[in-house]
Amino acid sequence: MKKLILASTSTIYGSGYLEYLLPTLKSFFKGYKNLLFVPYARPSGISYDAYTKIVSEAFKKIDINVFGLHTYSDKHQAIEKAEGIFVGGGNTFVLVNELYNQDLIEVLKHTIANGTPYLGTSAGSNIAGLTMQTTNDMPIVYPPSYYTLGCIPININAHYLDPDPVSKHKGETRETRIKEFHTYNKIPVIGLREGSWLHISGDKVVLKGELTARWFVKDKEPIEIETNQILFSYNL
């Protein structure tokens, strides 16, 4: 049974790293003592070790030890034996490129499908969908494929922003870009606002957090999904 939390962001305004999610994560990872962290999307200018240390400090607050995947010589085995997995934010292109280069896409996919709890934030959430094509990130590297883990049969747009009615900016909005995606693709897209997350348990995908989310389906008007609403249910 798949068990995932896919959050728009790791940090919300006025809060520390993962602070707003820690009560949920304490319950989600209940009974587990060790977490495998995948740092490959790392923010610019930070090392894998430094990124892992930030994550470790946060999870210490709920008595979970964090180990960086980059420190293991046999990364396939580390993933297969992990009690839980966390893929953090940064650049989705960099993350996906590294996962393909190290041949880790399939082992991650199978491990999650077999029930290992998975936490994603930002880029780590983007890769849980069918493709990474609805990320907001700059394409600073060119991954071998845009196909990702496919844990859920949709795409995610993390950090979804609504148009500012008083702004003088006349460029594309997030909604416009997602509609452009649907010109060539049929995959539904969920726009997750900051502080919101998807909770996947068994065959149900439920929106959590205080805000609504924006749901886009090709050739249909986007709609608002209420918090605690089942987005959809499907057979795993």
Automatic annotation (TrEMBL):
Pfam families: Peptidase_S51. Its EC number is 3.4.13.21. It is an enzyme of class 3 (hydrolase). Coiled coil: none annotated. It comes from the Bacteria. Gene3D superfamilies: 3.40.50.880. Keywords: Dipeptidase, Hydrolase, Protease, Serine protease. GO terms for molecular function: dipeptidase activity. NCBIfam families: PRK05282.1. Belongs to the peptidase S51 family. This is Dipeptidase PepE. It comes from Aureibaculum flavum. The lineage of its organism: Bacteria, Pseudomonadati, Bacteroidota, Flavobacteriia, Flavobacteriales. The gene is pepE.
